[in-house]
Amino acid sequence: MTVEVIKAEAVTISTPEVVAPDEPMKAAVVEETEKAAAAVEETEKVAKSSSYREESNFVSDLKEFEKKALSDFKAKLEDAILGNTLFQTEKPKKEVKETKEKKKKEKEEAPPAAAEAEKEKETEQTVKVEGEEAPKEEAPATAEEEKKEEEAPAAEEPKTEESPAAEEPKTEEAAPAAEEVKPEGDADEKEKIIQECEAEKKEEIAADAVAVPPAEEKTEEAETEATPVVEVVDREISLWGVPLLPSKGEEGTDVVLLKFLRAREFKVNEAFEMLKKTLLWRKENNIDSILEEDLGEDLAAAFFTNGVDREGHPISYNAYGVFENQELYAKAFGDEEKRKHFLRWRIQQLEKEVQKLQLKPGCVTSLLQISDLKNSPSPSKKELRVAMKQAVGILQDNYPELVARNIFINVPFWYYAFNALLSPFLTQRTRSKIVVARPAKTTETLLKYIAVEEIPAKFGGFKRENDYEFGGESEVAEVFVKAGSSESIEIPATEVGGTLLWDATVVGGEVSYKEEFVPTDAGSYTIIIQKGKKVAAGDEPIRNTFRNNEPGKVVLTVDNCSGKKKRVLYRYKTKKTAA
C-alpha cells in the first residue's frame, strides 16, 4: 500500500510526548505549530491531486509468511466452529492454576483436621472416664469404715455405666475391671448400654457426614467446576454478512480474516482471540439487529456518509462542530445513559457504512473517514472526551482495518495536546493512517484523496446538497498562478441569449478575484460581473451565472500578490434558453 507523505501541516501523526504540567504542554504545542509554519514556508510547490491504494486481498499477492498465517488462521477457525468451541469460555491460566493449588491445599489439610477432631472426641471421653474413676477408688474406702458389703455394689454401679468407654483405645485397662464387678444377670442393662453406644456412633457418623461431604459429592463438584460452559454456536456464523466457516469457500471470508490478521501483524493466535472477542461483543450487544432499531436522527448532522474518494471508498464525515450547540451536547453526553445511547447510535452508523462496502477481493473494503474539528468543543469537555475515547476503542477492537485513512481537518491549536492524550490508546497501525490539516490546508489536503466534485462546498469543493446543475457532464480544469502574477480564465459565450454557469475554487491561500464579460465586438462595453474581492483559504467556492445578449466571453481574473504559487480549479456549462 502506497503511503502518501503530506507536506506542511498535512502530516502523518507521530506519538508526541505527554507533558504533565500545563505550561510545558502549551510550550510544546506552540513549538509544534511553529515547526508546521516553518514547513509551510519551505514548501514551494503545491502537490497535485494524488491518492492511495489498499493492501491487496488476493491470496496470490500475499507474502509467504502472510499466506501461512492466513492458512493457519482458517484451520484454527474451522476447528473452532465445527468443534463448537468458538464461544467456549475458559478461565485464565493463572486463575485455573490458583484454583488447582487451592484444592490441593485443602485436600492436604483435610486429613489432619479430621484426625484432630477425632482426637478431641477421644480426649473428652477419656477425661469423662478418668473423672468418674476417682469415686470408684473412694467407694471401697468409705465402705470399710461403715459396711463394706452393703456399700460395695453402690460403688460398682458407676463402673458398669461407663463400660461403653472401654471401647476407646485409651480406656482398655479400665474396661476389664468394670466387667469383673458387673453383675452377670443384668442383661437388660447391658442391652440398654449397647443401644446407647450404637446411637452415639450414629450421631457421630451423621456429624462427620455434615462436616465432611462424601468423596463422591466432592468429585461431582470438582467435575462441575472443571466443565467449561459452552454456548450453542451456529455453524453458519458470519460477520458483516460474510460466512466465516472457511470450508464454505466464500470469497469474502479471506477478506474479513485478513483484516484481523493485519490488525495483529499476522500473529494468528492474537488475531483469533480478537475475532472471538468481536463475535462475543456483537452477540452480547445484539449488534446484528442494531440496524432495525430506531435510535433517532438527532445526531444525523454530526455523523454522515457523503460521496466517495478517488479510489471509490465511501466517505464518512464526523462534524464535531455541531456539539457547540449546548442543547445537542447535553442531549448526547448529559449523563451516563445518554452517552450509552450516543455510542449505540454511533455503532449503528458504522454498521450502515459497512453496508456500503463490498467485502470481496479486488473490491472496496474500507472507508475514508474525515473528522472536522471546526468549532468543536475542546477536550476540557470531559463527557465528550470520554465518549470519543470509548468510540475509538470500539472501532479499533471490533472494526479492524475498516478505515483506510482518517483525516482531521480544520485542526485547532488544542488538538496537538489532545492527540498527546489520545495517542497511547491507538495502535501504531492506526496512527499511521491519521492525517492532520490546519484550516489553511483543508482543501489542499482533501484534494489529495478526493476529487473536487466530491468535496462538500464548505470544505472548498464543488459538491452542494441537492445540486444537479452539473452532474457528470462538465470536466474540471485547473490553472496555476505563479507568485506575484495574474492569470485569466476565459469562458466562451458564443450563443446569444444563453446562460453561463461556473464554479471556481482557489487552493493555497489568499488571492484577488474578479469577473467580467468581454464582448466580441470591440465597440461594445465590457461588463463587470463581480468586482475585485479577496478570496481567502477556507472560503467556499465561487458560483455565478451570466446571461449574454451578444457574443463574447466571460473572463475570470486571479491576481496572486503573495510569494507562493496558487492553484485554481474551475468548471462551467452553458444553459440554453428554451425555444
Describe the structure.
The structure is a single chain. With 579 residues, the chain is α+β, with helices and mostly antiparallel strands. It has four domains: 201 residues, Phosphatidylinositol Transfer Protein Sec14p, CATH 3.40.525; 88 residues, no CATH class; 133 residues, no CATH class; 105 residues, Sandwich (Jelly Rolls), CATH 2.60.120.680. It has 15 helices and 16 strands. Strands 1-8-7-6-5-4 form a six-stranded mixed sheet. Strand 2 and strand 3 form a beta hairpin. Helix 10 crosses helix 11 and helix 11 runs parallel beside helix 12. The longest helix has 53 residues. The protein is elongated and about 145 Å long.
Structural key phrases:
4 domains; four-stranded antiparallel beta sheet; lipid-binding; about 40% helix; about 575 residues; alpha+beta
Short description:
The chain has 4 domains: 1-48 and 298-450, CRAL-TRIO lipid binding domain (Phosphatidylinositol Transfer Protein Sec14p, 3-Layer(aba) Sandwich), CATH 3.40.525; 56-90 and 232-284, no CATH class; 93-225, no CATH class; 471-575, GOLD domain (Jelly Rolls, Sandwich).
Topology record:
Layout: E1 11-12, H1 22-42, H2 64-82, H3 93-145, H4 148-161, H5 174-181, H6 187-211, H7 215-226, E2 238-239, E3 242-243, H8 251-263, H9 268-284, E4 303-308, E5 314-319, H10 326-333, H11 336-354, E6 367-372, H12 382-398, E7 403-409, H13 415-422, H14 428-431, E8 434-436, H15 442-447, E9 477-481, E10 486-493, E11 499-507, E12 511-519, E13 527-535, E14 542-547, E15 552-559, E16 566-575
Parallel strand pairs: 5-6, 6-7, 7-8
Antiparallel strand pairs: 1-8, 2-3, 4-5, 9-16, 10-15, 11-14, 11-16, 12-13, 12-15
Helix pairs in contact: 2-8, 2-9, 3-4, 4-5, 8-9, 10-11, 11-12
Keywords: Cell cycle, Cell division, Cytoplasm, Lipid-binding, Membrane, Transport
GO cellular component, one term: cytoplasm
GO molecular function: lipid binding
